[in-house]
Amino acid sequence: MDFEPTYTGEQEKFRLEVRAWLAENLPSGIVHPADPIDLTTEQYELRRDLGRRLGEKGWLWPTAPVEYGGGGLSLDYSVIIEEEIDNVGMTLPPYYDSGGKLGGASILVWGSEEQKQFFLKLIFRGEVRTWQLLSEPEAGSDLANVKTTAIRDGDDYVINGQKVFVGSGLGCDYMWTITVTDTEAKRHENLGWFMIKADLPGITIQPMDLLISGGESGAGSGVKNTVFFDNVRVPAFNLIGGENQGWKVATTHLELEHGTGGRISRNWLVDRMFEYCQTTQRRGQPMSKDPEVRDRLVDIYIEAEITRLFNLRNYWMRHSGANITYEGPQASYFRKQSGLRQATAILDILGPAAMTYDPELGAGEGHVEAYMRSALIALHPGGTTDIQKVIMARRIGIGREVKEKAGALA
Ligand SMILES: Cc1cc2nc3c(=O)[nH]c(=O)nc-3n(C[C@H](O)[C@H](O)[C@H](O)COP(=O)(O)OP(=O)(O)OC[C@H]3O[C@@H](n4cnc5c(N)ncnc54)[C@H](O)[C@@H]3O)c2cc1C
Q1: For ligand 1, is residue 166 a contact (CB within 6 Å)?
Q2: Which candidate, 166, 222, 215, 170, places its Cα nearest to that of 37?
Q3: Most buried pick, 16, 28, 166, 270, via CB within 10 A?
């Protein structure tokens, strides 16, 4: 059995159309900084511009319904778009947009018709960039423990509290966030989700100093922030899923975040490592001729391919409406642990050259060193490795008496 999808002549014709469109519309001058913290405003704007153009074509959110600004395409066509975008070194969307990806999908399931018309068109056409704001000082793995409050006052909710480890550099247009909407109600029955305009009075964004944030892709976030809400007034229209119904919405959001909503992409670092080892001499020959180097390069290749195939399977399951159980956390757990194994193999091959950002001494113009940091960091966001295991255990029947179901995706 071959895990790779095969395509009809019609679909291959579509691939050529996408390729030609990208050749014409990919802005010239796009560069990929090794550390996403170095993404400039100019580079960010080039990516947003590409996002808007993809949005106009319906290719930014290929499978999303046309009436809400998506492409209404079938799974096969959307895989082709994802693959072609990846081939030019970009992602869908071509910028960090975690709240758009997860908030958009959640609104599609839980929003009212008016909310879908309003918010989804903005997101699916690439007109806004949205951050996801979940974590708080006392609520990371235990998300239901959030303390930020949203209390109804007339036609508004008034939001007070603090979110940590959120967002990116260069700002956003909207914030997708979970709060307490009833301070007296029981755990899981006291929450509400909001789509909040980012420029409302009372919102303060404070950058955090981290080892690195985000990996080697067009979608790396670069910076994380603490966001403070100080008596922020938000129209009641922006509450998604209803007051105290937030845990229901969270099951959709978290399902996607925990590995079911991954993208289809190659690991570009593998290409960089191959190229580096083929073009760099050690003991009078290209490094790739050394059997020990080759041995470890194959290990990296295998890890990257398994990760890609897990993601491809999950993408297919999600968009074809297949019965999802443990597959999300399985892929997430594998990707995170695999990143560490690949980092160890890179260190075995390159030694100290893997650990310096210096373009003269380091490998891959800083990309390798940045990867070493991001492989460590990646264990944490989107649910830690421990949490992925906890969820898997519940879903395969060894964590709970009744097997836990996956979150609603439709
Ligand atoms: C680079 C980066 C980007 C991030 N981006 C975002 C973002 O965009 N938006 C956002 O809202 N948040 C974001 N986060 C926050 C992230 O979601 C949390 O850090 C994560 O959920 C873990 O929460 P915590 O840090 O509070 O650790 P804790 O939950 O306190 O966990 C501490 C340790 O205990 C373990 N642990 C906790 N509970 C269990 C359990 N039940 N069983 C076994 N082990 C357990 C954890 O695995 C971990 O090792 C980001 C974090 C990082 C590092």
Answers
A1: yes
A2: 222
A3: 166
